[in-house]
Design goal:
By secondary structure, this protein is an alpha+beta fold. The protein is built from two helices and eight strands, in the order E-H-E-E-H-E-E-E-E-E. The protein has a domain of 78 residues: RRM (RNA recognition motif) domain (Alpha-Beta Plaits, 2-Layer Sandwich), CATH 3.30.70.330.
């Protein structure tokens, strides 16, 4: 089974219509359109799982860059094991960090001995 990413689908499309489009290239195991949690409005991308790798490759070759209702769609195979903080450029898998750099305004002192002694009341 091969999973495909489908981006740029129309907002009014549902899973059944998405399945019908991909059935022309082979067996469709599952189709899912990603939606917002509160409003259930389409986020205009989804995933289709095809039964064979050959049918998935044929769908990618013929549908990538095509259009549905005058909207250009993108169809790409999902790379297994790719995390949200990783992306692929050519044949290289790159990773980026979401950590913010530390502020140089706050310096950590080595110990309290270097400073004046505290005066108690």
């Amino acid at each position: 089974m091969t999973k495909l990413f489908v981006g740029g689908i129309p907002e009014d499309m549902d899973e059944i219509e998405l399945t019908d489009i991909f059935k022309e290239f082979g067996g469709v195991v599952a189709a899912n359109i990603v939606r917002e949690k509160r409003t259930q409005k389409s986020r205009r991308y989804g995933f289709v799982e095809m039964d064979t790798e050959e049918s998935a490759q044929q769908a990618v070759n013929l549908l990538h860059g095509g259009s549905i209702d005058d909207k250009e769609i993108s169809v790409k195979p999902v790379i297994p094991g790719l995390k949200k903080t990783q992306f692929v450029v050519g044949k290289r898998k790159l990773e980026f960090s979401k950590k913010k750099p530390k502020s140089p305004a706050f310096k950590k002192t080595s110990s309290r001995k270097d400073k004046r002694p505290r005066i108690g009341k």
